Amino acid sequence: METLYHQTNKHIHEVQSNMGRLESTDRESVHLLENELQARIDQIFSCLERLEILASKEPPNRRQNAKLRVDQLKYDVQHLQSGLRNFQHRRYMREAQDREREELMTRTFTTNDADTSIPIDETLQFNSSLHSAHKDMDNLLGSGSSILDGLRDQRNSLKNTHKKMLDVANMLGLSNTVMRLIEKRAFQDKFIMMGGMLVTCVVMFLVVRYIN
Predict the structure, then answer these.
(1) Residues 121-131: what's their mean pLDDT?
(2) pTM of this prediction?
């Protein structure tokens, strides 16, 4: 297992080194490099399958450590696979944009040409999605404002209730110990309410950040 582990780890480092060549490789050769990297990543996945089998056959006192080492290699190669796919996606998008730009620049229109419009469906869809996101954000802010108003009302209600309880306690001649317990409970309720307000504000802030 140790020999296969070190070989697999070496292959991962080699792929990591070659990944840096993707950005500097010319457009004619980048496909070959991508295919080479993908083949080596597939080979690493095959080695990992064998390593998982070997790790499960290790003695009980070393099995857990062996599985952790294999999991680390698996995480590294999955990260490499994700990086390669992201690069390919960006390249596809750039090539599509270049083709569309080239078609637009080389396209000629005549006086009687029936098709003289430029497609704008994608722009309209993006604009519609943007308006929808702004509307959802406004609704969310409105809901958050309502929640904060409700918490303020509850705080005022708690204050009034606390005052009334103190008045009733004074009228009934309750002991100082009971009075302190009542004040302690009111103090705890105040922190619970403030914590709820803080959590609500944090959630609203995270949602706004996510929408933006």
Answers:
(1) 64
(2) 0.46
